Amino acid sequence: xxxxxxxxxxxxxxxxxxxxxxxxxxxxxxxxxxxxxxxxxxxxxxxxxxxxxxxxxxxxxxxxxxxxxxxxxxxxxxxxxxxxxxxxxxxxxxxxxxxxxxxxxxxxxxxxxxxxxxxxxxxxxxxxxxxxxxxxxxxxxxxxxxxxxxxxxxxxxxxxxxxxxxxxxxxxxxxxxxxxxxxxxxxxxxxxxxxxxxxxxxxxxxxxxxxxxxxxxxxxxxxxxxxxxxxxxxxxxxxxxxxxxxxxxxxxxxxxxxxxxxxxxxxxxxxxxxxxxxxxxxxxxxxxxxxxxxxxxxxxxxxxxxxxxxxxxxxxxxxxxxxxxxxxxxxxxxxxxxxxxxxxxxxxxxxxxxxxxxxxxxxxxxxxxxxxxxxxx
Length: 377
Prior knowledge:
- The chain is α/β, with parallel strands linked by helices.
- It contains 15 helices and ten strands.
- The strands form three sheets. A four-stranded parallel beta sheet has the order 2-3-4-5. A three-stranded parallel beta sheet has the order 9-1-10.
- Strand 2, helix 4 and strand 3 form a beta-alpha-beta unit.
- The longest helix has 20 residues.
C-alpha cells in the first residue's frame, strides 16, 4: 500500500485540484516503487483526461546561427570565443540554404537560437541584425513559423541597444517571429543560477520577458534543465513559477500564453570539469527524468496541457518511456541539433518522421503531425 498522504494528493489531482508546492515536493521525494508507479499512473491518466491519447510531433529544423558567445555558462559545451577552433557564424546564404532544405523536407517550423555574439550588429546596433535574420527567412518562406530567440537573446539585444524588452519583442513579432522558445530558464532559482549560469539573466527577468511576450501576442514554450545541482524544492519552485506565469496570462486575458513544457535532463559529458565533478555523471538518470516529468504533468497539466520529453537528451527509447509517464508530444525532427550534441548527448541530431511515427505506434497510440502552436497539420 502506498502511504495515505501520497494517495490523497494523487486522488485530489485526478479530481482536478492543483497541487501545493509542499505536495509536489512530497511526490518528488518518493522512493517506494508502488508510490512511484501510482504517480506514473496518475500522470498518464491526467494526460489522457487533458489531451487524449494522440501523440503529436512537429516537422522542424534547428538553426543555431552562431556559437560565438560572450557568456560562460558552467554546463555549456557549445559556446566558443570568436578566435577559438570550431567557432562559427553563419552568413545569410547559409541561413537561406538551411531554410530551403527545411521547407523541402516538409518543415512547418524553423527554431532559431544562437550564442550572444557582440559582433552580430548592423550599423553598430544589435536589433537590426536580428531583424535581418528573420527577414532572410520570412521573405523567402512567408509560410514557415519562426520559433526564435530566447529571453536571454531578447535581453541581450535590449541591453546592447538600450531598448526596453517590449520594444524588442514587438519588433521581432512585427518582422515575422511567431513564438519565443522558453529556453535559458535552466532552473528558475537564483541560487542555482549563480553556480550554473552566473552571467545569464536572473529569474525575475526571464519571467518578465516571457510575460511581456504573452501581453504582446507572442506564444512561448517553457523548459527546465534538470538533474544537476538543484533540489526537489527548487524543481517544484520552478514549476510553481511557470504555473503562476500561465495563470497570469489566462486570468488577464493576454492574447498568448505558454504552449508546452519541455523537460531537458542535464547532459554533462563535455561540460566544464568543475560542474561535471559536482554532478558526478555524464548522462541523465532516466528514472529521475521520468518521475520529474510525471510530477510536472500533475503540477502543470491543468494550465500547461502539452508536455514533451527530449529525445536528444534521453535517446528515443527514453523519450518513448516518457510518453507513458504523462507526456503527449514527442517533439520535432530537428534535422540538425548542435547544443546538446556538443555536450555529449547520445540521442542524435536528426529524427526522420517515420522513425517518430513508428516509435509512437509501438505504444499502441495514434500519432498526428502538429504545427508549433499545436494545431493539426
